[in-house]
Amino acid sequence: MITLYDYLPSQNAYKVRLLLNHLERPYVTKIVQIFAGEGRDLSFLLKNPTGAVPVLELEDGQVLAESNAILFYLAQGTAYLPSDAWSQAQVMRWMFFEEDFIQNGLASLRRSSRPALAPTLRLTPRHRRRWVSRQDNCAAISISAGGWDYPISAGCSLAQPLEAFVG
C-alpha cells in the first residue's frame, strides 16, 4: 500500500488526499509535524530534502515529492488526466497556474478564516480584496489572477466574475 507523508493543514497535501479519495485508492497516512521540526529529521529529509509535505512513498520504496508531481502520477490512466498531449498540457497549465498564482492567496484566506488566527492577521490590500470576496471563489481567484481568463470549470472562468469588482 502507498504511504502519504502528510501534515493536515497543508493545502498541498490536501490536494493529494482529495485525489486519492476521489480515486478510492487506499493509502496509509504518516503525519509529519512540520512545525515541531519533524520535517528536518534525517529520516524524512532522505525522502524529501526540502523537508516539505506531501511525499508519496510507493509500495516498492520509490519516493515522490511535490504535490503537483504526485497528482500527475496518481492521475495517470484515470479520468482526471486526459490521454492526448494537448489536453494534458492544459491540465499542467492549470496546475502551474494554481501553484504560482492561486495557492498563496487561498492559503491566507483559509488561515484567516480560523478564528484563533484572525486577530493577529495583517491583511495587505490584495489579501483584503480576497477576504471580502471569499464568498465567491471565482471572484477571489479572479483577483489573484489579475483578471486573466483561465477557465477553471464549465461556465466559470477566472476573469468572469472580476467584472463585478471593476465594472
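That was protein one. Protein two is written in the same sequence-then-structure order:
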Amino acid sequence: MIKDTRSNSIYIRFFIKGKDIDPDEITQLLGITPAYKYKRGDLHGENNQMVRKQGLWSITSAEKIESSDLQLHIEWLLTQLEPVKSPLSSIVSRPDIYAEISCIFNLFTIEWDDRLEPNLLERIAALNIMFGISIYCLNNLENRLNDVS
C-alpha cells in the first residue's frame, strides 16, 4: 500500500504594497519584522533581470502556526496587528497603499470546513483592512504539470 504523505496547508498573511512604500520604514513604525519585503527598483527573477515596480511588506503565519484551524492563524495575525493599530491605520489609509489580510488554502482534497467566531470577524473588521481568501486545489497537480510540458 502506498501512503500519500501530502497534506493540506493553511496560512494567513498580511501585506502592504504600493509604488513608493519603504518596507524598512514600515518595520520601524510597526516594530514587526516582516517575513518578506522589497522596494520598488529592487532586482529579482532569474539573474536579477527584472525590476520591482512597487514595494511590499508582509508577515505570515506560515512556519509560525502548524494547524489547519484557520482561527488559530487569524488569532496569531491579530496578536501582531492589534497592538499597532494606530500606526498601522496611518500607513494603510494612504491613497497610494493597498493592504490585505489573505487566507491561503493549498488543498490536495476539496474537503475543507471551518467556522469563524463573530468576535474574530469583529476584530478583523476593526482593522479596516481588506480580507481575502485564496483556495488552490493541488489535487493531481503533477498530472496537470505533465500535461503542460
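The chain has a mean pLDDT of 86. Keep this in mind for the problem set.
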